[in-house]
């Protein structure tokens, strides 16, 4: 039997009303949102690292300026999302602590290395492409601050995706070695990109409740299918081969059939054992430790100022 307060809440959600920070909400709803929004924020922050790796080595001044702007956008998205999570009653320090201790997750995709310049194109095209597919429906999330944050973020992600595709367009029209570099990037990033949508629906523990609360609008498999359907023609346009022998157009369903991602690899990466997990987390912890003198300075100043006012 559902508690009357909870029933009234569910009715508002069902009617498509937005839930705002100071309103009553079930504890589970609050916790789920804190988990998802903070993980999303952490993904944006950690997601700066693989691309930041190429800022000093971008092939032209123009490419460098564009990449710099993209990585700055990601920092902005992270801060924006931390603010949205703070409206649920968690502090930023707590969220950082959860990231640094390994309690909170961030997207599996950022635990893979960026080996060549084509990887920067592939990230924009595939990783931002997958992020958009996932985030456009989140603009209609039942929690107001998260839904509104998604509007601007999705606009910027669209620019990011185009810049990635543009890098690859240029490279596939270049030398044979450049084209081979693009194919190699697709081979390495294709399956990890499909894994961004999370485990298959039957293994997704949170989906049913999150969909009932209209935090998620679509299941993981639905979004993965839409991503494949959108991306395969783009790969063909670039003259590339998607590294999936089971990929085949299915006329009846009006979409592609495709192979299973390696779920063992996925669970291994989210458990902290992917190729770059330790490196990524260490970079974030180092940044936190390097900022200690500054946080201490702020606290000391605030204490002195309070003393002066008190005196
Ligand atoms: N990676 O029951 P479900 C970007 C976890 S990048 C890591 O299906 P849920 C921009 C999941 O948290 C992308 N962990 O969970 C960018 C849960 O573990 P928990 C960031 C994953 O929440 C581009 C467990 O597995 N976007 O935006 C992953 O219903 C380029 C069970 O899974 C978002 O975060 C994964 N791939 O659905 C930046 C979108 N998948 O929490 C820089 C918001 C699942 O119990 C460069 N998030 N897990 O410990 C979501 O939409 C959802 O949270 C899902 C997962 C779809 C990721």
From TrEMBL:
| Entry-linked Pfam families | PaaA_PaaC
Principal EC category: oxidoreductase
Task: Cite the entry's keywords alphabetically.
Answer: Oxidoreductase
Q: Could you confirm whether the keyword Oxidoreductase appears in this record?
A: yes
Q: Which InterPro entries match?
A: Aromatic_CoA_ox/epox (IPR052703), Ferritin-like (IPR012347), Ferritin-like_SF (IPR009078), PaaA (IPR011881), PaaA_PaaC (IPR007814)
GO-annotated molecular function: phenylacetyl-CoA 1,2-epoxidase activity
Keyword Transcription (UniProt): no
Under NCBIfam families, the record lists: PA_CoA_Oxy1
- According to UniProt, the name of this protein is Ring-1,2-phenylacetyl-CoA epoxidase subunit PaaA
According to its UniProt entry, this protein's organism is: Rhizobium miluonense
